[in-house]
Amino acid sequence: MSDLTDCDASATICNGSSCVVPESNFNSILSVTLNIVLTILLAMVMFSMGCNVELHKFLGHIRHPWGICVGFLCQFGIMPLMGFILALAFDVIPIQAVAIIIMGCCPGGTASNILAYWIDGDMDLSISMTTCSTLLALGMMPLCLYIYTKMWARTGTIIVPYNNIGISLVALVIPVSVGVFVNHKWPKQAKIILKVGSITGALLIVIIAVVGGILYKSSWVIFPKLWIIGTIFPVAGYSLGFLLARIAGQSWHRCRTVALETGMQNTQLCSTIVHLSFSTEDISQVFTFPLIYTVFQLVFGAAVLGLYMAYKKCREKNNAGFPESKDNEIEPKSSFHKTNDGFRPDEK
Asked: Which alpha helices (H) appear in the chain, and where do they start and end?
């Protein structure tokens, strides 16, 4: 008789030296846990974003929507089209093309609001654009995906999970709406929530990178094409957003705002939608793209901030040397110079 002690302790079927060991369910448990954590953290981020919306200012932009319309055209016109063009130009596989287009369809993130403050942008417009694009993504993201993924869906090489994406987007409207209500009723507490939400957003990216790296080890062999697309995409968004806003006759501070809102996407939303909507095999091929985009949108955003700060210092030096030229300032001091309490360091 064979010695059964040679078998693994966890074996369920043993026949001599041949044993069947049950498959480990560690990855499946980790995947479910990651999806739950991502959903909760993203809801907190969107809730904090709603806490930054002042209802009367938001309604004011809705009544005079020219700036928001320009932003809408950039967000759901330029970015999805640019994603489609890049996917075709670099001939990526269908699932990667869908992930790139999802990134292009995503609304602006809270990071754009913070940068808009530091470059003296129009804070009211920035927050209104982020809020509107988040709400409009409910219909525009599935529509853009339907239009731009047709060529791959028609051949049967990819199935876009519209139901899962739609459910994810509907779930986001609730925390944003609650956040707007909280800011309307308790504005002081809303500013604290906003700061917590900014930290939560950074934490969300870290969790996606670390836990996703464990789940999808093969995804760290990153396709060079995704690196290149992740570099070009945000730069194209910043540049084309600024150009379109200028063509539409927007002031310089509004052009800077629209540029940031166009190029700086809600990458946490993209990562969450990809995780909740696609199979493990598909995710392993696109997992890294939202992270690549995050890195480069922040790098180029920081570069824009650095250039603006250098320009501002030079202008202040010139004005100090010629006090009589104060009347010739490029941008008059208007409401966009006012500090937004949500992004102001605590005063001691």
From this structure: 26-50, 55-63, 66-73, 79-89, 94-105, 110-118, 123-148, 150-153, 162-185, 187-215, 224-247, 252-263, 267-277, 280-286, 288-321
With beta carbons less than 8 A apart as the criterion, state whether 188 and 346 touch.
no
Quick check: 53 and 340 in contact, CB under 8 A?
no
For 18, which DSSP code? E
Rounded Cα gap, residues 294 and 312, in angstroms: 27
Neighbours of 339 (CB within 10 A): 9
Tell me the CB-side half-sphere exposure of residue 207, using CA atoms within 13 A. 22
Cβ atoms within 10 Å, residue 116: 30
Burial class (CB in 10 A: 0-12, 13-18, 19+), 229: buried
Instruction: Give residue 290's Cα distance to chain centre.
Output: 8
Q: How does pLDDT run across 260-316, given as a tens digit for each residue?
A: 989 988 887 887 788 777 777 777 777 788 888 988 888 898 898 889 889 888 888
